[in-house]
From TrEMBL:
It comes from Pedobacter heparinus (strain ATCC 13125 / DSM 2366 / CIP 104194 / JCM 7457 / NBRC 12017 / NCIMB 9290 / NRRL B-14731 / HIM 762-3). InterPro entries: Beta-lactam/transpept-like, Beta-lactam_cat, Beta-lactam_class-A. This is Beta-lactamase. It comes from the Bacteria. Residues 42-257 form the Beta-lactamase class A catalytic domain. Residues 1-17 form the signal peptide.
């Protein structure tokens, strides 16, 4: 009985994977591109119009870093859909929840009035850490978010930080974990209106098209082309997931890295350069020369 239940839970992701065919030419180009990279690279890409895929270590687990904010957003909208939260719900910021790193809410004055929509926007636009941790709590915590992910058939994408029972795996992967295939698939499902509800998916997708951090993968895509994206970065890992609403058909890709040797925080970081190169290659591959 347990095996049947697991199979049913995994069916959406497995069915998605079975409908696509491998683009061997593109896969060869990607392998050539990453040759010599000092670290581990995982890539998954799919042309949504043709259904063809290509990838490297597509089902290996990588740290999410701030890409975990996509699952947190889903957990938040699950609560909104159930009526337990409202998108414009008034809230009050307390500086006791301040968390450093990326974002701007940490600079708000104590007792500042805000609302849930602001938290969601800051989390996805500026990758705001303070609002992200607040949203994780409002969504019911990491365990609840992981339950929602499991309901949609995702077996490896998880929130680890501040999640009971996942302390050991948090030490390995940090705040969250995913695989190239799963994170790309998650974005595709949002694009198709299949996560939470059509309306919730559309709102989440809008939030993901307004990112501040646009100097890596997004910089290789023309500014007049819409793309939904989220990036993540810690010392030993730089990653990005993008769904491009390209003129000749949508395509999605995830580039994940871990155990990277170059842990610098400059634009010429090896992993960030790789993300830019992969994005540029895919744009040129999927779009005819006349539109570049």
């Amino acid at each position: 009985m347990k095996q049947i239940l697991i199979a049913l839970l995994l069916f959406p992701v497995l069915a998605f994977a079975q409908q696509i065919k491998t683009d061997h030419k593109l896969e060869k180009e990607l392998n050539t591109l990453i040759s010599g990279f000092k670290g581990t690279v995982g890539i998954y890409t799919m042309n949504l119009k043709t259904g063809k895929q290509a990838g490297i270590y597509t089902d290996s687990i990588f740290p999410t870093a701030s890409i975990v904010k996509v699952p947190i957003l889903i957990g938040l909208f699950d609560k909104i859909e159930k009526g337990e939260l409202s998108y414009h719900q008034p809230l009050m910021y307390r500086d006791s929840i301040k968390y450093g790193g990326s974002g701007i809410m940490q600079f708000f004055k104590d007792s500042s009035a805000t609302e849930l929509s602001v938290l969601a926007n800051l989390m996805m636009t500026y990758s705001d850490n303070t609002t992200s941790l607040w949203n994780q709590r409002l969504a019911g915590g990491g365990a609840r978010i992981n339950e929602v992910l499991e309901q949609y058939g995702f077996k490896d994408t998880r929130v680890n930080s501040r999640t009971k029972g996942r302390e050991a795996i948090w030490k390995i992967y940090g705040w969250g974990q995913t695989t190239p295939r799963e994170m790309a698939t998650l974005l595709v499902k949002i694009r198709k209106g299949e996560i939470i509800s059509k309306a919730a998916s559309e709102r989440m997708y809008r939030l993901m098209t307004k990112g501040y951090y646009d100097e890596n993968a997004l910089a290789q895509i023309p500014p007049y082309v819409q793309a939904a994206a989220k990036s993540g970065a810690v010392n030993e890992s730089r990653s990005e997931v993008v769904l491009v609403n390209a003129p000749h058909g949508d395509y999605v890709f995830y580039v994940g890295t871990k155990n990277i040797k170059d842990q610098s925080w400059t634009p010429d970081n090896e992993a960030e350069q790789l993300i830019r190169k992969v994005s540029a290659l895919l744009w040129k591959y999927y779009e005819p020369a006349g539109l570049r």
